[in-house]
Amino acid sequence: MLSNNGMEATIGQEHMATRGLEVTQAIREGIASGEYSPGSRMNESELASRLGVSRTPVRGALSVLAVEGLLEYTPNSGYKVRSFGSSDIQNVYVVRANLEGLVARQAAINGLSDSARGTAYRIIDETAALVSTQSWTDAVRVSWEALNHEFHEVIREAAQNDFLVQMIRRTDEIPFFGLIRFQWYDAEYMRGAHQEHIEILDAITNRQAGRAEALETEHVYRSGRRLARQWQLIEERKNTSPLDTSTGVRKIG
């Protein structure tokens, strides 16, 4: 049985561990959102002040994020946010495509529940209405992205493999976009992706595991290849485009 001092020490350690996780997640989200731009130095004191914590959890968080590949460490210089290029995007999507393919295979083996099947077909119907529009506004793109995310979440839940899903979500934390905002969804892409969703759902519904895996793998790989091409154009243009003085971001177009 723990003494009062022992219990207090245990509670204190648990609090420190929780605080460390919170700090790590806060910095991770800041990197992914572009709050901490690629190449910027991560100063422990400044981060601690901004997050309202001591330097100890910040130091631990920076070490964790370096292991995850989001930061680079140089002796005498400390940590800085890693810069990502089009080749990095392509490489990550090769990994993600294969992981998503495995998820689709497992979902086909397990089968969809009535509830999951109903949700998936509802998403297909709503997406069909979106891609039939002739007005490609930001609101349409945002709605499409939300439906796209929901569709893939249905498949991930059906796979019943938390480890695979966690690995996929790790790829969401790679800060591809930094401070640069651009829309890479267009009518051609969304219509093509919608048709691919129909084929993927058909394979999963009919318990065709191999077909589901192949379709999902190619679907995600194609998305990554497109994003890599878009990012490459940005890399080529950002050094020659005028700087937007209101945001500190180079204008893309």
What are its keywords?
253 residues, mainly alpha, Arc Repressor Mutant, subunit A, Four Helix Bundle (Hemerythrin (Met), subunit A), 2 domains, 3-stranded antiparallel sheet, two-stranded antiparallel sheet, 9 helices, 70% helix, 6% strand, globular, disordered C terminus
The largest sheet has its strands arranged as: 1-3-2
Radius of gyration computed on alpha carbons: 22 Å
Q: In the CATH classification, which architecture of the largest domain applies? A: Up-down Bundle
Q: What sequence of helices (H) and strands (E) makes up the elements?
A: HEHHEEHHHHHHEE
Summarize the structure.
The chain has nine helices and five strands.
Please give the structural blueprint.
Blueprint: H1 4-33, E1 41-42, H2 44-51, H3 55-68, E2 71-74, E3 78-81, H4 86-110, H5 114-131, H6 138-159, H7 162-172, H8 187-205, H9 209-237, E4 243-244, E5 249-250
Antiparallel strand pairs: 1-3, 2-3, 4-5
Task: Kindly describe this structure.
The protein is mainly alpha-helical. The protein has two domains: 4-81, Arc Repressor Mutant, subunit A, CATH 1.10.10.10; 86-250, Four Helix Bundle (Hemerythrin (Met), subunit A), CATH 1.20.120. Helices cover 70% and strands 6% of the residues. The protein is built from nine helices and five strands. It has helices spanning 4-33, 44-51, 55-68, 86-110, 114-131, 138-159, 162-172, 187-205, 209-237; strands at residues 41-42, 71-74, 78-81, 243-244, 249-250. It is globular. Residues 7-12, 177-183 and 241-253 have low confidence and may be disordered.
